[in-house]
TrEMBL record:
InterPro entries: Tscrpt_reg_Rrf2, WH-like_DNA-bd_sf, WH_DNA-bd_sf
Taxonomic classification: Bacteria, Bacillati, Bacillota, Bacilli, Bacillales
A matching Pfam family: Rrf2
PANTHER family: RRF2 FAMILY PROTEIN, WINGED HELIX-TURN-HELIX TRANSCRIPTIONAL REGULATOR, RRF2 FAMILY
Protein name (Swiss-Prot/TrEMBL): Rrf2 family transcriptional regulator
Gene3D superfamilies linked to this entry: Winged helix-like DNA-binding domain superfamily/Winged helix DNA-binding domain (1.10.10.10)
């Protein structure tokens, strides 16, 4: 099982924003440099986080990104689902809902999601 690089960058960006002592928005260039990633690529990730209401963006010369109010309650699962979507990791297409393999995989996924839902970026700050 592997999450995309986009999820990795999203989680690290959220942690950087949460750890930042700067009260002003942080530009995409700075955020991208911190992770050695293209600003264009990171902008696409940030757009998803803005759309989900996790961060806010401010346009202009002094613009950038900052955490939304109530960011302390944003879970790892919230961030992962903002980037990866909410579909299941495993799908047993041809074997129906009673498939014993499907039951094991879905149970395992539920436990992982429970842990990711319980943990927040605020836990790391």
């Amino acid at each position: 099982m592997k999450f995309s690089k986009a999820t990795n960058y999203a989680l690290h960006t959220m942690l950087f924003l949460a750890s930042s002592k700067n009260s002003k928005p942080i530009g995409v260039q700075v955020l991208a440099e911190k992770q050695s990633v293209s600003p264009t690529y990171l902008s696409k990730i940030l757009t998803k986080l803005v759309k989900e209401g996790m961060i806010t963006s401010v346009s202009g010369a002094n613009g950038g990104y900052s955490l939304s109010h109530g960011w302390e309650s944003i879970s790892f699962l919230d961030i992962i689902q903002a980037i990866e979507g909410k579909s299941s990791l495993f799908d047993c297409y041809d074997h129906g809902p009673e498939c014993p393999i499907r039951k094991v995989m879905l149970s395992s996924e539920e436990k992982m999601e429970e842990e990711l839902r319980r943990r927040t970026i605020a836990d790391l700050v």
